[in-house]
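input
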Amino acid sequence: MNLASRLLRSICLAPVCVALCATPAQLASAHPLRRAPGTSQPPYDVFEKSIPELQAALSSGRITSRQLVQSYMARIAAYDHAGPNLNAIIRLNPQALRDADALDSERKVRGPRGPLHGIPILVKDNYGTRTMPTSDGTLALATLQPADDAYLIQRLRAAGAIILGKTAMHELAAGVTTASSLTGATRNPYDPARSPGGSSGGTGAAVAASFSAAGMGSDTCGSIRIPAAYQNLFGLRETRGLSSRTGIIPLSSSQDIGGPLARSVTDLALLLDATAGSDPDDPSTLGAEAHIPQSYAQALRPGGLKGARIGVLRALFTSTPEERDNLRLINGALDAMKAQGAEVVDVSIPGMDDLLKDSSAIAGEFKFALADYLARQPNAPVKSLGEIIARGLDGEEVDARLRLRDATVSRDTEDYRKVLAKRRALHDLVAGVMAEQHLDALAYPGPLRAPPLIGDPALDSGSCQLSATTGLPAMAIPVGFTPAGLPVGVELLGADFAEPTLLKLAYGWEQSARPRQPPFSTPALVRGRAPHPLVFRAAVAAAHGDGPSANVKFRYDPTTAALDADASVTRLGADKVIAVTLQRGRADTPGPVITQLVAMGRTSGSSRLTLHARDREDLFAGRLFVQLYTVAAPLGMARTAIVPPTDDIVESRHPVALKRPAAPGTR
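output
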């Protein structure tokens, strides 16, 4: 089966595939290994490329927008339903190549429209798209085809962006692990056994894996910021009213915000330049232009932390054993910001906790907002939340929550009025404290625990509600990695329409700390495909040469971190095996046993070990050893370092992907 057919089979959703996804002919023409006639350049590598880098390559003629689409499709084919099986993409835009060709032609005649001209972008599947269904992550809406693009999609297209496809999301945006009855579970590229967060987890995983230049998500309570924290990304929940919600399937009509996730602050600012602004169909955005600078991106300057005053909300810091690694990194980042010239002070806001409690509007709005949206869709297969539940078209993970929300009988209840009053009061309280204390931002943790394992119902939405309740903007910024190699983020909350300030602070942090590191599981492609597994051997023999010998064949898959070992022991004679082990250590210092490769009394064994961050680092640094123990040599007969082939390593992995992350504020 060729690349086109595999990609079609893995990404399209039957039975609506033919009408809704790219055709085999289109995908065949998208094969990333094709080159323009008369050229000898290798395929362009989009891995970790920023929007300015991509635009420079387009402007120089190094690559076309068609080839960019091809390159991102190749990465999706390699890693979304193969390799780490991220399951981040629901469907590809069947018109992506046609749009790319049109933009390439326009560039030749008129030049680029701007920084996003010909740049592929992925969007969450609650954004209305006229070329693809908008399913909101639920089986119930798998075939829902809006007639028009959401307003933010219209803005992106007008800026020249190519809508490459739709990303997986938590069902109906009603959770933070990105699991749904339509797509199942999406995986975190930094640890595919774990969730990418949600509900915009598909966008977060896809952007982290370089499936597109950047992406769009939505945030009702952390659904942009949690995936940003879990994927080493920058994510922005904007001020309520800065950009339109028209055409985004609602969770809460007053709390929802559409916004960007990106690998860099500059990329995020470029998306904000394209999408911020008023929409006649969204009254909350009227007058937004008064608060929008000429360009968010052009205002970015190094040294943005110098002279800033940042208030630390210690009331939102907790300290359990599971949270210590994250807290250490967050506190280290705050110290590093201070070293970069920021004034960092602890701040308390009396009364904040009481106003935050029970301040979410979702329960009072979701049922009715969803019904209003579906009523405007002539081809909607269902018309209400109640019908979705009654037909069994929702996932078990969200069923109880949806039933609770469907039990709301009226839009106008005393509880709902209390929520609205709390929101107004908390906005005024927080904004007042920030003004009185001359604060540029408030800092507090993102999620303080590791991303949950796939299938684990445990949730950690961090301090998501503060921005959602007040309507004030919040920026998630990456601050480092735990010893397990998992990303950690901190949030900065600003005053109304203070996006330029938040971007300035985030850019200052980014330029000093360089926090971005790509995930190990989705490295640069090798000649257009995922790097092949590394195969290597280790032999351990008695010093005198005629005694027992252990031979191990290893196979390491860099996209899954699976290390397979087939081991055998020969020339035992009357001796017996105690164990053949894989151990940590150094050339002159033995270290602890990681696992047994051959068990006591046996002469062979097969095993699989998934290497975590420290294991991967030690493997490529030559700090993993095979050791043979027998009855005649119970303290160890000999040991040998295992050494993967270095030529393949250079070709198949990004150098920083296996480095231990530096401490915040260091190089």
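quick obs: The two ends are 46 Å apart (CA to CA).
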